[in-house]
Design a protein that fits this description.
alpha+beta, six-stranded mixed β-sheet, Nitrilase/N-carbamoyl-D-aminoacid amidohydrolase, single chain, 14 strands, 25% strand, four-stranded mixed β-sheet
Length: 269
């Protein structure tokens, strides 16, 4: 999707796409990061944000999951957790509309992009402090968000704890996405032997922010099964769970960890 700054408009757009996905046979549906709003002005973001229990999007998406009878991951919502802090929260609903799991983005995107854009997520967001696994009918889902993608230890931790699938809802910048998006997602799949599901924001947003798009579904051996391109829409793939065991059997790297002595540490003789 190409989310704007109005939560009601974003809710309508996301709900329409979710219904389209269900009509095409989807049983597990995911939306991108910051589905409820991409508001670049901090003061306005906090005016519009609400606590999870009071957020209209949470209630509406729960009702929609129950109506359609699907597992629904809202990639993330901007959820107020204090007067001056929000959480970038990924929420998984079960087919009865109940919250099955929630994950707060751990790694804050505090960077200067060479295209002139500057981001300081830590000014507005409180980072999460724990990894999250959720049980699905088909296996276990490890939940992450966007910039987390650049921290491989998180994905290895999730895979070694039992994850079969990894979610990476994102709003990757166009500049970094063109260089790194596909290769990072394929790497996380190959390293863990997991399927990777990465719904992404696309296009030009409020005040000229550009996101890369290319929602991806990646198989455990690294093949891209579906690429959503650069326009809003629905991207689907059929998932064969047997490919997880096959990939891990061919390269069982998750079982080959060795202790590492940091450089400069005195060696034992």
């Amino acid at each position: 999707m190409t989310a704007g700054r109005d939560p009601a408009e974003n809710l309508a757009a996301a709900s329409k796409a979710i219904r389209q996905a269900r009509a095409q046979g989807a049983e597990l549906i995911m939306t991108p990061e910051t589905t409820n709003m991409m508001e670049p002005r901090r003061a306005l973001m906090f005016e519009k944000a609400a606590a999870e229990e009071a957020d209209m999007s949470v209630a509406a998406f729960g009702d929609l999951a129950a109506e359609l009878g699907v597992w629904l991951l809202i990639g993330s919502l901007v959820v107020k957790v204090a007067d001056d802090k929000a959480a970038n929260r990924s929420i998984l609903f079960d087919p009865k509309g109940r919250v099955a799991a929630r994950y707060d983005k751990m790694h804050m995107f505090d960077v200067e992009i060479p295209d002139g854009q500057s981001y300081r997520e830590s000014k507005a967001y409180r980072p999460g402090d724990r990894a999250v696994l959720a049980d699905l009918p088909w296996g276990r889902l490890g939940m992450t968000v966007c910039y987390d993608l650049r921290f491989p230890y998180l994905y290895r931790t999730l895979a070694q704890a039992g994850a079969d699938f990894l979610s990476v809802p994102s709003a990757f910048t166009r500049f970094t996405g063109q260089a790194h998006w596909h290769v990072l997602l394929r790497a996380r799949a190959i390293e863990t032997g997991c399927f990777v599901f990465a719904p992404a924001q696309c296009g030009t947003h409020t005040e000229g922010r550009e996101t890369y798009g290319h929602s991806l579904i990646v198989a455990p051996w690294g093949e891209v099964l579906a690429d959503g391109g650069e326009m809003p829409g629905v991207t689907l793939a059929q998932i064969d769970q047997a490919r997880i065991e096959k990939a891990r059997r061919m390269v069982p790297a998750l079982t080959h960890d060795r202790p590492v002595v940091p450089p400069g540490t005195a060696a034992k003789v």
